[in-house]
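Today's session is about reading a structure prediction critically. Students often jump straight to the picture, but the first step is always the sequence itself: look for stretches that repeat, for charged clusters, for runs of hydrophobic residues. Only then move on to the predicted structure, which in these notes is written as discrete structure tokens rather than atom positions. Here is the chain we will use throughout the hour.
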Amino acid sequence: MRSIRAICAACAGAAAIAVGTTALAQQWPTRSVTVINPFASGTTYDLVAHLVLDQVARQIGQPFAVENRPGGDGSVGIASVVNAEPDGYTLLLSTSAMSTAVILHKSLPYDATRDLAPVAMFGGEPSMLLAAPGKGFSTVDDLVAAAKANPGKLKFASVGVGSASHLAGERFSEVAGLDVQHVPYRGPVEALNDLTAGRVDFYFVPIPPTLPLAAQGKVVPLAVSTIARWPPLPDLPTLAEAGYPISTFLIWCGISAPAKTPRNIVDKLNDAIGSALDMPAIQLRLQRMGFKSAQMDPDQYGRFFADDVATMIELGKNAHIAPVD
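Below is the predicted structure for this chain, in token form.
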């Protein structure tokens, strides 16, 4: 009898805890929410998060504080969220760097697909495929034809092994069947300087910084790395239109939470972020940053992230990217 009473008491206690947790989740948020950005301030990720979450805070009625916690190629900040209480008050600014980290490191202090709950996608920053001037490349077909006629001779720039520009170049080259050389640089200024001088042949780079150079004829825009054309550049074709739809590449970001965060908190936050992204003023400001919003429900975002990780793993193998650590 004692054991039966003990079991009943334990069950009653567990039920009370579950009811209490559900009640707290339904009241969320009753205080400020911290969003960990695992990288330094001033990046596009950071600017997008502040813009969107400021509007979300006004809708929900509690402040959202974006806290930069860089270190370990993002792993320090990510691990801090993985280990936080799953109560909706500590969130992660999740980014495409989480996918590339899987191929750059032999081990990580977390499993992002298992230890985090996807909440909402903000969208992505497309890249523009640029060619050097004076090479005779005015279309993607021109570049592909030259590369195939001169295997191993054309060069593409990046800002380092595993960077977005490197992976975009590798992915495009793989899909197009090109044999080209990768030339890593310490930063985008050096890479653009060598592109304008013709020392490298092509380069994938975010759109806004390249527009003045394109207007001056110092670089040749060939395509954007999206399925649909970029609204501010309606005459510039996409890689999809050039015949390479699976070579699209976005530097994306969104929000994740610790695993086991109550679903009603996740859904409430997803709805609020979706409402913010729907606002024309928000869309216009994002567009000026070179960022395209892309709404997804939590399940869609989870599948998107899992697919992105799988794509990066395959790309890392094909590009012979050796993980460190």
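Discussion point for the tutorial: The beta strands are 33-37, 64-68, 90-95, 116-131, 155-158, 181-184, 202-206, 220-224, 250-258, 292-293.
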